[in-house]
Amino acid sequence: MVSKNKQNAPNLFSTTQLMTRIREFLSVLPEHRKGGNNQRYTIEDAALSAFSVFFMQSPSFLDFQHRMEKKHGKNNACTLFGVHKIPSDQQIRNLLDPISPENIFPLFMEFTSALYDQGALKHYRGQH
Fold first, then answer.
1. Using one digit for the tens of pLDDT, what is the confidence trace for 20-53?
2. Could you read off the pLDDT of 88-124 as tens digits, one per residue?
3. 87 near 45, Cβ under 8 Å?
4. Which of 38, 74, 115, 123 has the smallest C-beta neighbourhood within 10 Å, fewest atoms?
């Protein structure tokens, strides 16, 4: 039987809602680059591209997206994650390495708290 609390809990983790919240959060990550012509990729696109690798659980996901783009003129990184331009692995590292984990931690806590509140984490807690 589903408790009344769970029935009334909002579905915070539909793909659309999850990606919208992630994009909103990543769009305001700090820009560490100085002005210039070498800003082909946004911090947001780099972060979304990095996230997509974990989401799809494929180490060759970004390479596959580049090949799909060349062959079909579109890719899942854009369709599913809203990536405008897919940076290379090295470009992702160059863009994201200078950003402190403290900038991402509030999003992690937001999702973890929501999962906890919805009871989704109780199966992962050890028996005391």
1. 898 999 999 998 888 766 688 899 999 998 888 7
2. 888 989 999 999 999 999 999 998 898 888 888 888 8
3. yes
4. 123
Q: Distance (Å, rounded) from C-alpha 84 to C-alpha 104?
A: 21
Cα dihedral angle (101, 48, 89, 62), rounded to 10 degrees?
Answer: 150
- Are 76 and 65 in contact by the 8 Å Cβ rule? The answer is yes
Angle at 44 between CA 54 and CA 89, to 5 degrees: 50
Q: In the chain, what's the furthest Cα-to-Cα distance?
A: 59
Q: Which residues contact 25 (CB under 8 A, 6 or more apart)?
A: 104, 106, 107
pTM for the model? 0.70
- Coil, helix or strand at residue 38: coil
